Structures are given as C-alpha cells and as structure tokens.
Amino acid sequence: MVDRIMPEPFRIKMVEPVTVPDRSQREKALEAGYFNMFGLRSADIYIDLLTDSGTGAMSKYQWAALMKGDEAYAGADSFYALKEAVKEVLGFDYVIPCHQGRATENVLFGTMAKAGDKIPFNMPFDTTRGHIFNVGAEPVDCVIDEAYQPELQHPFKGNVDPKKLEEAILTYGKDRIPLIMVTVTNNSGGGQPVSLENLREVSSIARKYGIPLFLDAARMAENAYFIKMREEACKGMTLAEILKAMMDCADGITCSAKKDPLVNIGGMLCCRTEEMYHRLLPRVILFEGFATYGGLAGRDLEALAVGLREMVDEQYMAHRVAQVKYLGDLLDEGGVPFVKPAGGHAIFIDAKAFLPHIPQKMYPADVLSIEIYREGAIRGIGLGALAFATEDENTGELILPKLELYRLAINRRTYTNCHMEYVAQSIIDVFRRRDSIRYGLVVDYAPPVKGLHHFLARLRPVQL
Ligand SMILES: Cc1ncc(COP(=O)(O)O)c(C=O)c1O
User: Fold this and answer.
1) Which CATH number fits domain 60-310: 3.40.50.410, 3.40.640.10, 3.30.160.100, 1.10.357.20?
2) Which of 329, 391, 422, 455 is least surrounded by Cβ atoms within 10 Å, i.e. has the fewest?
3) pLDDT tens digits, residue range 270-280?
C-alpha cells in the first residue's frame, strides 16, 4: 500500500530543463551507446537514475560557501573548515580529502593491503572490489544470508554475519587480513542498512583480533536514519547522535562525498590516529594532491563542510527515504519484483524474477535497462552478471553472482514525487509486456580489467 506522500522539504529556485526524446531518438541513442547505459548521452535521457552519485542539488548554503574557497596549495582555510565539520559530525581527528570515493579506496588498499590478503566485508561496492583486486587481494563476503533473498523483509539486510566473519579470520589468519570493512548502507546488496548493534559486534570482533575496522561510509546518514526508524534501542536518539555512534565503532572511514555529504565531487578518508594518518599520506600525495586539498578545489572543500552538516537534517532525510519508498510502493502495486524493503538511495529490481526466461549469462538486468530506457527514456543500471561475474582461477569457468539486480538510484533533492510516478508507470508498462522481451545480450568488447566490465562493455542483443 502506498503511504501518504511526504512533500518535498524544499522549494525550487533554479530549474534545469529536460526534454523527453522520442522513440526513434531513443533507438539511435541505444545503438550509438552500444546498448550500454554508460554509453548514453545525458541529453538523450528524461529521468536519469543511473546513480545518486554527485547528481544531487546543492543547497543555497552550499552555493554560498563556494565563494569562501581558499585555493592555497597547503594549509588552506577551506581544509580547516572541512576538518572542523568532520570532527563535529563524525568525531574523527584526521581527514584526508580525495577527489572521490574510489580515490580513497586506492589510498587505503594501496597502503594497507598486498597480494594474497583477504578483506572481510558485508559486501564491497564494485569500485571497492576493483581496488582490492588491483593490489592482488580479495574481498570475502560475510553478509547475512537474508541479503540474498530479494523478496524477504528484514530490517537490516546489510548486517555482517558475525559467524562468517570469525570463520574468515580463523580460515585465512589475522596476518592476511589487514582490515575489515563494512559498507553502510550496503549498495551492492540493495542499499540495505546495517544495525548499530551489528556494527558494535563487528567492532568488538575486530578489536579481539587486533584488526582495524573501516566503514565505507558513502551513505552513512541514510544508514543512521534506518537505525532510528528500525532499531528499538535507538528510537530516542537524534540522527546526529546515531551517526556518531556508528562512527565510534570504526578506526576509519572511506567516503564518497558525492552521496550523503551532498556534493557534486569529492571524497574523504578519515581516521583516528596520527600513526594511521601518516601511513596513508604518501599515497595521497602521489595520486591525489597535497594533504590539505587531495585533488579538490578549496571551494569544493567548503561545500563539503556544509553538506556534512546538512545530511543529518532529519526533515531532509525523512523525505529522502520516504521518496524512495514511495517509488517502491508504486512498483509493488504494479507487481514489479524488487529487493524488499526499499533501500535508502535506490530501488533494486530483481531482474531474474522480472525476466525469468532470459538466462543470467545473457544479462537480464542489462536487458531491463534497455527496455526501461526504450519505454520512458529513463536510465537505471544493471548490477548483475555483467558487473560482478568472475572466473574460477583454476577452471576458467564463469561464476555468476547470486543477485541480478537493476538499480534505480534516486538523486538527492533533484526529482519530485511526480517524477517517481512517471518512472513507476513506465516500469509497470514494461512489466506487463515482459513475456514479449525475447532477447539477451552478448559482450562484443569489455576491458581486460577485473571488475570493470560493465562500465565500458559494448553489448549486442541476440534473439533467444
Ligand atoms: C558504497 C560505495 N562505495 C564507493 C563508491 C565509489 O565512490 P565514487 O563514485 O565517488 O568514486 C560508491 C559509488 O557509487 C559507492 O556506492
């Protein structure tokens, strides 16, 4: 059932016109982009839900803060504005700006991990996996089993299974585990949250074995909001208090600031000790820039400092999560199968259940991307076999991922609830004609780099 709509807690000050390309334009755009959603031009899209990353609208306070940007190479005031906001909102003493989330991953794994290491996770995001592979290490998924059952309702499907975590530590030995990481919320598993109780348990296991715990904190405020809504012991706490309590569990975080911190570009790596800070800095200087700007302009650091404080505004976050749920409720009414409950930033449609007649090795999630674009000029993204399949090291056999999902990521403060109704209607129309979708995809080209196929793949439809 669709709940009462929660109206937008903002009004629109500037508009960005968008047009709806006609059907023949959409066909041309698909061909020109090799049937890969990353190959489309934004001008060929009406509603762009490819990602919630860097695509949100900044507030008037963030735009005003841009003017304060101090562009000094070292020791800029803007760095200290960010440092202060990080201390206030997250409690960390050390912050390293980086140009975006994957840059923080490069610095963290490039510094801390080496070939043969294992990194236990709930589940890593795809760039995170890519960076772990890049240093010859491997992630170990320790998420609870419920995460693999799309239709199952569970309040914290992003939780780590403590038994799986301890088993991984005992199997590989703590010397091969340079750090443990938890993604909040768990993007690859449907934008599902991790409970505070679970984070505390993981933290105590990490401490027991003397292994540092890091959070991938891209969507830390959404995670905190779900804790507030769903974890009995936290009901009386403010969003800001819950977020701090989450951070208290960790030795450090990587963060794509393009998500919850509400900026168009940016990332940050935070930690507690001077020793860890100095260990991480050389790679920052090699790849990002000096310690006090890390690849960002001073004005970006200012906007980020404001965004960090805005993300814990309870009215803003209540609307954000309600808008995603609203889209989910509309799809549910139309019978469309998706990961339940609705995630914090996105709806993840279960492509295996939507298109059961297309074999997973022919990429049903990416067929769905094409059909939904055809129907409504809407861009989402397939996150299934094309993104996550791996090969068995010994036999070369294809190992398909358990989940085959199609993601509609909702940009922050960007689209209205009416846009959500249009998206839902278009997808329900595709769902009604799903039996007539009789093709799969083959890959004509993909880069020979593990974990990056889906970004650059050239695809070709073939009849079933
Ligand atoms: C959970 C998570 N971690 C890391 C990243 C990488 O961040 P960026 O795109 O800023 O490099 C993303 C991006 O979508 C993400 O969702």
Assistant:
1) 3.40.640.10
2) 391
3) 999 999 999 99
CA of 357 to the centre of ligand 1 (A): 32
Nearest CA to ligand 1 atom 8: 101
The response to whether residue 256 sits with its C-beta less than 6 Å from ligand 1 reads yes
Contacts for 139-144: CB closer than 8 Å, 24+ residues apart? 140/168, 140/172, 142/168, 143/186, 143/189
Q: Take atom 2 of ligand 1 and give the residue whose Cα is closest.
A: 125
Provide the 8-state DSSP code for 307.
H
Question: Fold identical between 23-52+313-463 and 60-310?
Answer: no
Amino acid, single-letter form, for residue 295: G
Distance CA 186, CA 204 (A): 20
Q: What is 23-52+313-463's CATH number, 3.90.1150.10, 3.40.50.1100, 3.30.70.20, 3.40.50.1820?
A: 3.90.1150.10
pLDDT at 4 over 80: no
Are 69 and 300 spatial neighbours (Cβ–Cβ below 8 Å)? yes
155-173 pLDDT per residue, tens: 999 999 999 999 999 999 9
Residue with tokens 């600031």: 257
Among the residues of 265-357, which ranges form H helices?
274-287, 298-310, 314-333, 351-354
State if pTM tops 0.85: yes
Answer yes or no: are the C-beta atoms of 254 and 104 closer than 8 Å. Answer: yes
Catalytic residue among 73, 74, 444, 445: 73
Q: Report pLDDT for 364.
A: 98
Q: Is 44 one of the catalytic residues?
A: no
267 lines ligand 1 (CB under 6 A): yes
Distance 127 CA to ligand 1 centre (A): 7
Residue 87's Cβ-count burial label (10 Å; 0-12, 13-18, 19+) is middle
Q: Is the pLDDT of residue 2 over 80?
A: no
Domain extents in the chain: 23-52+313-463, 60-310
Tokens of 175: 């010397």
Which residues are CB-neighbours of 210 under 8 A, at least 6 positions away? 174
Q: Which atom of ligand 1 is nearest to the CA of 104?
A: 11
Query: What type of residue sits at position 347?
Result: I
* Residue range 243-298, pLDDT digits in tens: 999 999 999 999 999 999 999 999 999 999 999 999 999 999 999 999 999 999 99
Any ligand 1 atom below 6 A from CB of 295: no
Q: Give the DSSP letter of residue 355.
A: S
What is the distance in A from the centroid of ligand 1 to the CA of 437?
Answer: 32
> pLDDT digits over 37-54, tens only?
999 999 999 999 999 999
Residue 1 has pLDDT above 70, yes or no: no
